[in-house]
Amino acid sequence: MRRLPLRAAAVVATALMASVLSPIGSADAVDPSLPPLWQAYQDDFVFGTFGDWSSDQAKQHYRTSSPANALKLDSQIGRNNTTNASRTAYTAEVARITADTSLTEEQRAAALQKANENVVLAPTDGPGQSETILKAIQAYNASANLPEAEKKVVRAHVLAWHGGQQPNYFFANGFTFDAANPNYASPATMLARLDNYIRLMMEKYAKYDDIIYSWDVVNEPVDDYTGQIRNNADAQVGQWGTVFRRPDLDGDPDARLYAESAWVRQAFASARKWSDANNVDWKLYLNDYQDSNKPYEPKLSQTIKVMKPIYAAGDVDGYGMQGRLAWAAPGIDQIKKQIDLGLTVADEISVSESDIRSDFEPNPDYNPAEPTRRVTEADLSDPRGQWPAYGSCSWTNRAAANGNTFDVCNSPVRRIPAWGTAANDALSSSPDIMRKQADFTADYMDLLLSYGDKMKAYQIDGLSDSATFNRNDGAQLWTGDAARTEKYSFFAVLGAPAREDLREALAVDPGAQAQYTPESWAAYSDVRRAAQAVVGQRIYDLAAVDAVKNATAAVRSSTAALVKPSAGQSRPGVKATLTVLSRPTPAKAGKVAVRLVPVGASAGTVRGGAVVLKTTGPRKVTRVAVVRGGRAVLALPALKAGTYRVNASYSGSADYDALKATTIKNLKIVGRR
Prior knowledge:
This protein is of the alpha/beta class.
């Protein structure tokens, strides 16, 4: 359910228009006339981006953002293997300890161990670095004098991860790494280092508590294929899993998972302890992803197992999903299952870096009875391993299209053959592909909205098809060409909260028909029927969004206008006239106004209630609008040539009786398309 009253912006007197599949519009991506996406969701959850917050487009449509890389480990401690700040401090401390002749052997050993555990943060106030970004957001909020509900905010990403942005030296004794002879620190040392690092991070960033609202504590801990903690034997290298690897537990997968995820539990315990110590109320998240070209299991169930003891300890608040999806897979049912499982080990959910790929289609060769696996060089000689004949399994193309398109054999999806191996702006902005992306996106947003106050944030990755992580895949809401135009999916996202409002308006039960006057009930029924024809329609343009908002306002107005008969009391009626504001033709839309005038001795201006307009002739059209200042303005689509009989009915109000459907004008349309 929606948690706040209907937004005033949703009550607009625009036409109730059927959504049709039309060519992509020409509005620029930063067109100020377009409703901001974040405002559409402000009563539901915070809406924003994973990436840069500072462009005009981002400021218009996004409220929350996550610096994609600036808060990761390498950006906080430095990347240099020999001159990093932790290494420098360590060597100085070792020299001091070694020179101190007053220490016993036990004291020296303890001091050396402590030196091996202490982490030193690097400065982060240079161009593009984390504090520069955060201070710029604070300054923007202050200079724009924004109220609390409109200030730009930050989801901080991430304290502990895997791979190249976790410098190998952080996991080595002495804070320097030799690939030929890796000297990994012990698990105990790494737990202490992790605690020290998180302590420093919580202390350092507490001063940005006015804009930071959550932290991704751990990101992507579990391997896609094995369901175990990532380690150096996995395709996506995980240094944590290498340090904590327990081959003695290979025969007991659950025991192995628990033992090797000790660092995950430590990360959350430290984040809770040190955020509390710094009096900051940050929500703590485990953030994970599921690629659309792989089955969700075993990774999903194994991740839930990792989270259970953390949730039981009270150290995790949220389950984060990156939301990297595709219209072809997974289905909405699978995503719902993921969310429901996540809510067994967390109190809230968020989507952190979403996109909806357009380049995949269902794989006709997928065999769910066989395992899905990474492509290998052996597939080069397998005639099945040549895309597109066997899904997207292709050793030759494995690095193409961001490296996450041709890397999987026996995938549920494959790249559309006509797409090619790179970006394809023409295909990603074609009506058929845009419609498929938009329809899936609409269903996805409906699902997220259905979780009410459990759903806290939605961030989409980047700014366009070419300015996002999956930049070759038609995965964004804006096209990747120079025009950067809104795709159908933009309007599907924009319209989802409005459609949820309409569902709620239609769900209101006014009670038995018998308690109302026949005229007001008939008018109310007309409005409901017109609105029900809209609520299930797909949204591909702004007119369809406005039609849904208009229908919502009309349903609420006609419900409020239901009249109970009162003995000895009568209300004046109204008569209706029609004025053509701009005559429709076969080639263009038009606009009309229905004016309501009190009949008899009554004076005053008719306000409230709803007008339903219907045409009969070469084309049947139904429109509905709220009465304001004695009239209702309704948009008409382009109409075939011919003569139309225009009928109007009025739902009535507290001051005026309802008007049954009556012919108010014959409208002649001439011309050719």
